[in-house]
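Much of our argument rests on the idea that a fold can be written as discrete symbols. In the encoding step, the backbone of a single protein was reduced to a row of integers, each denoting a local shape. We regard such an encoding as a compact summary of how the chain folds. The record that follows shows the chain in one-letter code together with its fold in token form:
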Amino acid sequence: ISALVGLALLIWMLGGCATLDKDECLNADWQSIGYEDGARGHKASRIGNHRKACAKHGVAPDFHLYETGRLNGLREWCTPRNGYRQGERGKGYNGVCPKELAQGFMEGYTYGKDIHAYASQINRQQQVLKKMYADLDVLEQDLAAAEDTLVSPGVSPRRRRQLLEDIRVLEQDQKAMLNDIADMEHTLEDMQEHIGQLRANNPYQ
């Protein structure tokens, strides 16, 4: 059964690699296909995928029509606004934009990339804060357990002295941790305000 599942998965994966199906190959408008690929930011090498997909149907792409369409499609993709969107989402840039469009695209892309990096930094700080709260919870449980033991009957004087010292140390740690948490929350508030300003002042909306 596992072999059959593996074979089915392989067939599905191979089928998933095809960019065009039989009907699309037989009725291909290569200029439109090129335009759609360009509007999605695909490289010229994308036609190689189409060639492989259509070869088994006896169809060869028209590179001239395809590339004409792709270059027109790139004019839709290579805008400063889309550059910002790609950068803000953390997407890579594969250098497809023509020279006359590349500068504007890259200006938007860089702005978006900076916001993405800053948002990632905020996320990391939020994870640190979450860990700090978890550590505080454990510490406070230890503190509560020590206090409960301290007032329990039958605790020896020696043990009581040790518990009092443990409680003193735990309370100091608690105070320090609460201060660290307050500092982190303040830092995150400042960071959230800053990224809000960056987004509000975004010239590529």
Remarks:
- Residues 7-16 have pLDDT under 50 and may be disordered.
- Residues 84 and 151 are 62 Å apart (CA to CA).
